[in-house]
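Project standup — Tuesday

K.O.: blocked on the structure for the chain from last sprint. Re-posting the sequence here as requested.
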Amino acid sequence: MMPKWHVLYGFLLSYILVYFFNFSVLSGLIIFLASVFIDLDHVLLYCLDTHNLNPKKFWEYSLRRGNHFKSMSKAERDSYKKPHFIFHGIEFFAFCIILSFFFGISVLLLIGFSLHLFLDLFALAYEREHLSVKVSQLWLWQRNKNKKKFGMI
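H.V.: unblocked you, prediction finished:
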């Protein structure tokens, strides 16, 4: 899902929680930021793959790669390994749940992360892609076995 949609829906959820459910503005801001910045794992993966920190090149690369991937047939797409986005999955979510017992702010992060992951899963289902990419990194690791790496574009 494109970042603009995460920004829009993150803002809407935060606004609703602040306006209708008496969340503080700071809590709403934390939820909003968590719903958007969970995607920093995409940037991290790009930096590790390319050794480049240029945000403009990251954006161009991501668009090119996404368009190329979407232009393939489903069978061809399924023959490639899917990327591991470490903040997208039940493993990171469980880690945040454990943190929430010690740090109250983690609950707000979980709300933002939950919205983001829900939107990603909805988009994957709509595009008829396998949900493992955003459900579990261990499951994805299993599914990626014996698949070829999707090369640089």
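K.O.: great, moving the ticket to review. The two ends are 20 Å apart (CA to CA). The chain has one domain: 3-50+84-144.
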